Amino acid sequence: MTTLRYLQGYPEPLLAQVQSLIDEGRLLQTVTARHPEMHAVRSERALYDYVCEMKARHLRSAPPLAKVAFDPKLHVLKNALGTHSAVSRVQGGQLKAKREIRIATLFKEAPADFLRMIVVHELAHLKEREHDKAFYALCEHMEPQYHQLEFDLRLWLTARELPATLPASPDNEDSNGCV
Ligand SMILES: [Zn+2]
Questions:
Q1: Could you report the per-residue pLDDT of 92-143, keeping only the tens digit for each?
Q2: Which residues, including other chains, have CB under 8 Å from residue 162's CB and lie 6 or more apart?
């Protein structure tokens, strides 16, 4: 039994289906077949433009973003896929908040749907702090498939951490330098 740490809280029958895909060695291919499209957001500049474009489309009235960045430490050290923060400081007698969104670097290699989902999630936090009903309603407003995408993202995260299944081979003779 694999520990499905990304899928805690989902109903048992669903988890049983996931487990059988894992047992059959088909989880990653099942997820990537559902989300075949990749994105071209490789740099911090491209990410900033991507996020601002989505914000302009859905959340025009939300406060502007000072910074958007890929963060290689988020997922590994903080166990987070994205973060949002507002650094407040007084500027010209006014209290200003510099808002910042960070996205785990692993999304550079993720299907386009999953990057969109995490960006929707962090943008929604510009308006709703908690993970409550209003928050998820806003996510669904920006991305009607939000809940399905979040589930599939969790499947993808699960799949990429499974031990690689190597095809059984009768000997190792061909394993050196044959690339
Ligand atoms: Zn959140």
A1: 888 788 899 999 999 999 999 999 999 999 999 999 999 999 999 999 999 9
A2: 2, 22, 27, 28
pLDDT at 16: 96
Residue 100 alpha carbon to ligand 1 centre in Å: 13
Find the 125 Cα to ligand 1 centroid distance in Å. 7
Domains, the chain, in order of start with CATH, read 30-160 (3.30.2010.10)
Q: Which of 99, 115, 101, 100 lies closest to 42 in space, CA to CA? A: 115
Whole-model pTM? Answer: 0.86
d(CA 31, CA 50): 24
| Token couple for 133 | 């009903």
- The order of strands in the sheet holding 82-91 is 65-71, 94-104, 82-91
Q: Is the pLDDT of residue 53 over 60?
A: yes
For ligand 1, the distance from its centroid to the CA atom of residue 169, given in whole angstroms, is 45
